[in-house]
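Action item from last meeting closed. Structure (393 res):
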C-alpha cells in the first residue's frame, strides 16, 4: 500500500497574484507527483483552503486537480483545518465531498467522549478530527477515542493541531503524542515545520505546507513539501520537496534611512535576481531619517527591471534611534519637563495649533468634584474646550 500525505496547502492565501499562482502550481505538482507515484489514496490533514469560503477561481483550479485524482481512481480523505473549518459546518470541503471527489472523516460527540468513525479502505482504517480556531480542538482531543477492536488493521489518524513535541518550550496550548489514540501513522497538519517523530515505533509526521505561507516560511523553509508513505511489511517514508522558484534573501544593516535606498539597490545590483523571489530584510537602528524615508517603491521598480518573480520585504527589525532628552531640574521644578517637551515638539512640528497646547493641557487637567454627577462634569469639561477652540454650540 502506498499513499500521499499533504497538509496546509492554504490555497487562496496569498494576496500577491504571482504568489497565489505559484501556490496553486505547487499544489498541482504535489498532485501530479502523487499520481506518478501510483498512490492508492491521498490524505489532506487540514487547511486545504486558506478560508472556509475561498474565491471562485481558486475553487475551479482545486476541483480540476481533484478531478485528476478521481480519473486515476485515487481516493482522497480529508479533515478541516483551523483556516477552512467553520463552526456552522458549512464549507466548500463539503462541496468537494458532495461532488464525489473526497470523503471527510466523521465523528460522534457523546457526553464525555468523542468517537472517531473510520473510513475503511481495503484493510486500512482512516480516522480524523478537524482543527479549530485558536486551538480549541486541544481539549476535544483529550476525549477522542477510536475502536481498539480494529488494532489488527493499519490505522491512520489525521489531526490538525499542535503536538507538544513539535513546539519545544513555546507557550502554546498543545497535546503530547502519548495522549493520542494509538495508530500506525499519525498524519499531522497545522504547524508548518519539518517534523518526523515516532510514538511507540509509529511515525508521526507534519508534512509541512505545500507552499510557504508567509515571509518567515520563505526564509526558513524556502519551499513546500509533502510525503509519500509506502507500507510493505514496514513503513517507508519519503519526503518530497516542491521547489518552483529560487529564493534570494538580502539581510542588510541600515543606519541612515536617507541613504538606505541607494545602499539596498547597490547590494541588489551585485546579485543575479531574474525569476527569483526576493526577500528584503533591512535591520538596524536608524540614526538619521525614518523608515518611511527608504523608498521601497523605487526598490520594487528596480527589481521589476531585473525581472524578479516576486518581491517581499520585512522591516520589523528596523528601528528609529530613541533620543535621550537631558533636563536639569531643581526641586519643585517638574513643570519644566512639560515646557522642554513642548518646545521640542514645536520645533519638530511647526503649526498654528501649537500656541494652544498649554491651554489645552490646562483645560484637560480639571478634576471631577466630589459628588459631582458625570454629566455635569463632562459638560464643564466640554464648555472649557469649546471656548478654547472658539466653538459655538
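Sequence:
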Amino acid at each position: 500500500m502506498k499513499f500521499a500525505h499533504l497538509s496546509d496547502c492554504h490555497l487562496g492565501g496569498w494576496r500577491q497574484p504571482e504568489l497565489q499562482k505559484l501556490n496553486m502550481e505547487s499544489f498541482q505538482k504535489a498532485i501530479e507527483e502523487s499520481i506518478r507515484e501510483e498512490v492508492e489514496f491521498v490524505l489532506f490533514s487540514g487547511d486545504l483552503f486558506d478560508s472556509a469560503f475561498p474565491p471562485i477561481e481558486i475553487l475551479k483550479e482545486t476541483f480540476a486537480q481533484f478531478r485528476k485524482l478521481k480519473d486515476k481512481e485515487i481516493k482522497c480523505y480529508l479533515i478541516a483545518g483551523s483556516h477552512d473549518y467553520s463552526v456552522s459546518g458549512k464549507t466548500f470541503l463539503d462541496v468537494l465531498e458532495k461532488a464525489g471527489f473526497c470523503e471527510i472523516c466523521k465523528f460522534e460527540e457523546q457526553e464525555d467522549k468523542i468517537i472517531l468513525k473510520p473510513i475503511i479502505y481495503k484493510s486500512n482504517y482512516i480516522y480524523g478530527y478537524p482543527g479549530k480556531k485558536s486551538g480549541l480542538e486541544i481539549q476535544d482531543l483529550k476525549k477522542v477515542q477510536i475502536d481498539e477492536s480494529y488494532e489488527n488493521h493499519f490505522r491512520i489518524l489525521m489531526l490538525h493541531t499542535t503536538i507538544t513535541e513539535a513546539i519545544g518550550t513555546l507557550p502554546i496550548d498543545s497535546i503530547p503524542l502519548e495522549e493520542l489514540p494509538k495508530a500506525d501513522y499519525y498524519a499531522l497538519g497545522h504547524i508548518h515545520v519539518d517534523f518526523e517523530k515516532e510514538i511507540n515505533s509509529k511515525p508521526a509526521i507534519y508534512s509541512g505546507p505545500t507552499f510557504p505561507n508567509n515571509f518567515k516560511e520563505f526564509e526558513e523553509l524556502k519551499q513546500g513539501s509533502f510525503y509519500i508513505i509506502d507500507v510493505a511489511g514496514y513503513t517507508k517514508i519519503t519526503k518530497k520537496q516542491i521547489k518552483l522558484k529560487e529564493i534570494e534573501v538580502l539581510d542588510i544593516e541600515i543606519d541612515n534611512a536617507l541613504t538606505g535606498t541607494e545602499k539596498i539597490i547597490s547590494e541588489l545590483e551585485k546579485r543575479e535576481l531574474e525569476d527569483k523571489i526576493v526577500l528584503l530584510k533591512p535591520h538596524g537602528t536608524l540614526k538619521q531619517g525614518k523608515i518611511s524615508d527608504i523608498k521601497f517603491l523605487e526598490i520594487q521598480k528596480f527589481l521589476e527591471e531585473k525581472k524578479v518573480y516576486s518581491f517581499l520585504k520585512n522591516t520589523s527589525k528596523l528601528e528609529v534611534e530613541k533620543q535621550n532628552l537631558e533636563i536639569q531640574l531643581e526641586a519643585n521644578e517638574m513643570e519644566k519637563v512639560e515646557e522642554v517637551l513642548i518646545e521640542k515638539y514645536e520645533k519638530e512640528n511647526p503649526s498654528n495649533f501649537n500656541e494652544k497646547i498649554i491651554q489645552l493641557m490646562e483645560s484637560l487637567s480639571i478634576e471631577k468634584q466630589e459628588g459631582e454627577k458625570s454629566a455635569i462634569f463632562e459638560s464643564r469639561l466640554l464648555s472649557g474646550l469649546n471656548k478654547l477652540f472658539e466653538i459655538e454650540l
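Note appended to the action item: The longest strand covers residues 277-286.
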